[in-house]
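Predict the 3D structure for this chain.
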Amino acid sequence: MFESLFVYTLLFLVMYACGKTVARREFRYAAGSGVYEERGRFFSREMWILVLAFALIFGCRWGVGRDYFRYLMAYTGMVPERFEFLFQSLTLALKKTGLHFCFYFGLWALLDIVLLYYALRRYKFLFPFLAFFLIFGSYYLPMMNAIRQYLAALVFLNAIPYIIQRDLKRFTICLVIAVLLHKLSIILFVIYPILRYKDDWFRRIWVQLALYFFAVFISFHSEIIIRWVEMPFEWLSNVLGYHVYHYEALFGEKYNRAKFGNNTGLGIWVKMFVTLPVIVFNKPMKRYYNSVHFNMLYTLYFVGVISSLLFGQSIVLNRVAMFFSIYQLIIQCFFVYFCFHLFPHRIKRRRQLVFWVGIMVMAVQIPLFLNMVSNPNSTAAFLFFWQ
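Done. Predicted structure below.
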């Protein structure tokens, strides 16, 4: 546990310091104006330190999850594995160099973190918060386990501005790249007409709360969802080449529930505590940021929240929801910045409010993080590949 705390805390401090330095150079976001001023180039010295530190730590990281070992065996040649064309080509190209597998995983970690920060380059004021939630919110786990899918999801994240610009050509290019990384990304093509038609699909708070609590209820009875989608998803998984996962996971839900239980652990209560304030204050947040781009991000965030509750108990069905999980990290950062920079101007006791927001963030994230890294069987616990 001490090793995990030391490594993750050190990485957080480096990423926070670099992100804070970059953010200070930028013009502070003007509430309600929807205008951003990008003064400096993205790849500054601090940004290189930030992304390389992340790549170094997670390149040397061992055993992030089940998929990690699939990639490891494919790269070392222990088990032949066929991936999508682009991912397969990069894997074979790096494999021919004879480099240690830490460089292989370091490359994917570097691409992940660059794509994430680059997509939010207009919101550099979020960079310090990104460092906190990325590490202590444990978003690095799925990012460095489901590597192909997260890369594809981050490529799609960078394609969202092209929806606003009505640039179907560039959007299609990004989606083709995403499909060449993970073929399930083909389902993301439907996002273009949906968000092009309307950027803010969830405006009424009571509707969001009703959908959210309904999804929470369903999450305790995941067999309902499995029964609804079992047959159509069996066909879809066979078409997309996920019949192995279908056999092991979709038909094995009873085993999964017996081993892990339904969605009743500490995690769901922590997520609920974080999600509910975001939903309740989403209207003033949208007025504060006053941006079509933010509205689109929030729409995808809420889709991710609902789908993760509905499909979170199934390894296969959660593959769809995973495309939207990155937006939970992003909107949480927007929310915390909103709390720090809007509420203090409406009350006199600024220090008390900032303290309250800080306590809320730390109280929600840190205990769950400590619980995860203290468990020797958890993939959250840090372990170097040479140990």
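The chain has 20 helices and no strands.
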